[in-house]
Design brief:
Elements lengths: L1 H16 L9 H9 L30 H11 L5 H14 L5 H15 L8 E3 L22 H12 L3 H9 L13 E3 L2 H10 L4 H11 L5 H10 L8 H14 L4 H20 L5 H20 L9 H11 L19 H18 L10 H21 L8 H13 L7 H14 L2 H4 L2 H14 L6 H9 L4 H11 L6
Helix pairs in contact: 1-12, 1-14, 2-6, 2-8, 4-5, 4-6, 5-6, 7-9, 8-9, 8-10, 9-11, 10-12, 11-13, 12-13, 15-16, 15-17, 16-17, 16-18, 17-18, 20-22, 21-22
């Protein structure tokens, strides 16, 4: 089969060049949740006993006040969007001693209800329409931050110490991905769910049942990619029994070119790894390889998204397509600049100039105090203008996020004084801007980065204390968690 030969050629090339396979960093959370729940097939179906000591130290809170302090913050969390509420409750529950079971269970029950209503259902993997060679942007994240129903549910299950049937029920309840549009910024990423199942289910029948329950009803290309990757991780002896469900999934998953293009190269890297684990089963090797060839051939013959035919990804994928009749030419159209591109670029230049003035990187004396002050004032003026001009059309919060990402590092080394106070005020204004707050995951990721990074500021503790009194309910509550040491990774 001509196409089979071409696909095999690409697989060899990817192996030789050592192409890194697709893997979601936040899947580590899922793997931890699953690994922490490993059990023998005979284990009970009740939660494990919780440790009687606090999981994390709570700075500044006396032991006899910890319960009341937790209740107060949990009550305030009701003001937050559901995803943020769930995250706060999970952090509070993790801070309590294991013996406080009533309070912990109450917090985890509330967190479970809130998690189901989080703004994002699954973590997101950036599509080629959003992150690619032609539209490189430091603010475009390759992954969402992790404030989604899937991660929140996995954290909840981990903190409860679920086992057996209770853990299996939690896995079954994890959300399924939806189809991706050609213009979407992120595709639903089910890999953390697969990581949790394959890391947490005991080898043998429990793993097989959990796998079958997840894969038998899967229909999306991202699920096919996640399932294939999972088979590179499970015990090798279990792979032959798990492959038939994957073969059926590869024959079902159709119609989502954005997700196919996003995962096609990672699947090309994972396939030979799985095939090698079937070395003693030639018939299964052939079934898997044939299903994969059908999967690739059908997708390449279908209507492609514009973003699928651009850049380095397109050049690599062309190795699949060489000589295939009807293959479209690569689209070399360069997208029009965003309305905020120029302003963001100027802000980044101003931020770079300030960092050069404040920190000597080559051993030469820093620039004069007057030159440093002029650079700082220029950055603050541009930041103020950018925040004043932020509008409802800035769906990606480009301007406030650029201000935040340029000013926060500067505050690590800026001397005390009126300019530092002004810079901090602009950072605070950026993080509570409407543009950022409309995306819970975006706000959460940027806020955690800011609050964690304040530990490197000379006045970080004082600034954090001031944010804990902020009128914005999101920011003040998370600043309090940060001051208590509850925002650790």
């Amino acid at each position: 089969m001509r196409y089979s030969f071409m696909a095999a050629g690409l697989l060899s090339g990817l192996i030789i060049t050592g192409l890194i396979v697709f893997h979601h960093p936040s899947a580590a959370v899922a793997a931890e949740a699953g690994a922490a729940s490993k059990q023998s097939p005979q284990a009970t179906q009740t939660p494990t006993a919780r440790d009687a000591s606090p999981a994390r130290p709570v700075a500044g809170i006396a032991a006899d006040r910890l319960g009341a302090w937790t209740d107060e913050l949990a009550a305030r969390a009701r003001q937050l969007p559901p995803g943020l509420e769930a995250d706060v409750l999970l952090r509070l529950a993790a801070a309590l001693p294991g013996g406080d079971t009533v309070r912990i269970d109450r917090l985890l029950d509330r967190a479970g209800i809130a998690a189901a209503h989080a703004q994002r259902r699954l973590p997101g993997l950036a599509t080629l329409a959003y992150v690619n060679d032609e539209t490189a942007d430091p603010l475009h994240r390759p992954f969402t931050a992790g404030l989604d129903t899937t991660h929140l549910m996995l954290r909840n299950a981990h903190q409860r110490g679920l086992q057996g049937a209770a853990l299996a029920d939690a896995w079954r309840a994890l959300p399924r991905p939806e189809a991706t549009t050609c213009t979407a910024h992120y595709a639903d990423d089910p890999q953390p769910a697969f990581e949790a199942i394959t890391a947490g289910a005991p080898p043998g029948e429990p793993l097989q049942q959990a796998w079958d329950a997840r894969v038998a009803t899967a229909r999306r290309e991202t699920e096919a990619a996640a399932a294939l990757h999972a088979l590179t991780k499970v015990p090798e002896a279990t792979v032959p029994r798990m492959v038939p469900a994957l073969v059926a999934l590869l024959d079902r998953a159709r119609g989502d070119d954005a997700a196919f293009a996003l995962t096609s190269l990672s699947m090309a890297g994972d396939l030979p790894l799985v095939v090698a684990r079937l070395d003693a089963t030639a018939e299964l090797q052939k079934r898997l390889n044939d299903a994969y060839i059908r999967y690739v051939t059908d997708h390449l013959a279908a209507t492609r998204c514009e973003s699928s035919t651009k850049g380095e990804h397109w050049l690599l994928e062309q190795r699949f397509m060489a000589g295939v009749e009807g293959t479209p030419d690569a689209d070399t159209t360069v997208p029009a600049p965003d309305a905020h591109d120029h302003d963001a670029s100027e802000l980044r230049k101003a931020g770079f100039a300030v960092r050069q003035a404040l920190v000597s990187t080559d051993g030469t004396p820093p620039v004069s105090a007057a030159a440093t002050e002029a650079a700082v004032v220029a950055l603050l003026d541009r930041s103020e203008t950018a925040l004043a001009q932020a509008d409802d059309h800035d769906a990606e919060a480009r301007m406030p996020r650029t201000v935040l990402h340029e000013l926060a590092p500067v505050l690590e080394s800026m001397p005390a004084g009126a300019l530092r106070d002004r810079a901090f005020g602009l950072v605070r204004k950026a993080i509570v801007s409407r543009a950022i707050e409309q995306d819970d995951d975006l706000w959460w990721g940027d806020t955690l980065g800011l609050l964690r990074g304040m530990g490197a500021w000379p006045d970080g503790a004082q600034r954090l204390a001031s944010l804990a009194r902020d009128p914005d309910p999101r920011l003040s509550l998370y600043a309090q968690l940060g001051a208590a040491g509850l925002l650790a990774e």
